[in-house]
Amino acid sequence: MSKNEEIEEIEELEETTEEAVEEISVEETLKQELSEMEDKFLRAQAEIVNMRNRHNKEREDSAKYRAQNLAKDLLTALDNLDRALEIETNDEHGESMKKGIEMVREGMLHAFKEAGVEEIDSLGQTFDPNKHQAVQTIPLSEGQESDEIVQVLQKGYILHDRILRPAMVIVAQ
Amino acid sequence: MSKNEEIEEIEELEETTEEAVEEISVEETLKQELSEMEDKFLRAQAEIVNMRNRHNKEREDSAKYRAQNLAKDLLTALDNLDRALEIETNDEHGESMKKGIEMVREGMLHAFKEAGVEEIDSLGQTFDPNKHQAVQTIPLSEGQESDEIVQVLQKGYILHDRILRPAMVIVAQ
């Protein structure tokens, strides 16, 4: 082999190696890009599943507590109905008005119930700071349990598991 | 070149071609897979944007019409309040009860307004089949416009742009 031929052979060998390296490198790069893209796709897919779950939960909550604002704003009106029913009447007109008020009250409570709102059970119950607000305590009389609610000053209301307004009560201690 | 040498050369050439084809094929396959994966990723990304927009719209609508069910269920109670206020009173008790009822009515209408519910403007307005239900027509009198609402038998209510209940009216024609 001449010197020149040797050089040529070496050069050829080098070229082949470079080509091979280049080919492997292109393949490797593609493989890596594919792997990265797959990763991005899988993360996007996971995000879609998360969003769907989050939104379903939100939709459920939103439906469950839908009545919250309006119901809360109507509690004063309901209090006033209760108060109007306490007024004594002594004639026919007053009686028929009272019947009308009673119908309104029943209608409101029915609509409230449909929306998930109910009065908090208070009188005779054990005081529960989550549902009741004690505005006064009186000494325990005979036959009363400790922490028993003996008077309700203002009714409380609950929407499913959310307190719209705690009941204002007097507790025996 | 001997016959054998020639065959060897041809075989070598074939092998090289096969390898080249194989390498191109691997590269091409990878490129195609990458392009497909990229496509899947972009579609997932677009789906995320769509979901977000859809849910924002849904959330807005849900907030806007949140009061719909409860408000609709309370219309009868409101009608009964109106009716109770029409009863004549002739004593103190009746008067104070009436004041109580008036307060309840104001309170309900205020809560309704906060929730986006308002009475449909009817008396003296031109009949609109989207908001009013004509239960009777009477001949046009002097000074009345054609299709003018001359009496409201039952009030109608609207929640933003949604009719909760059309007004029941008598129309002059």
TrEMBL record, chains A, B:
Superkingdom of the organism of origin: Bacteria
Region feature (Disordered): 1-21
Pfam families, alphabetized: GrpE
Biological process terms in GO annotation: protein folding
GO CC field: cytoplasm
HAMAP family: GrpE
Quaternary structure, from the entry: Homodimer.
Listed name of the protein: Protein GrpE
Highest classification ranks of the organism: Bacteria, Bacillati, Bacillota, Bacilli, Lactobacillales
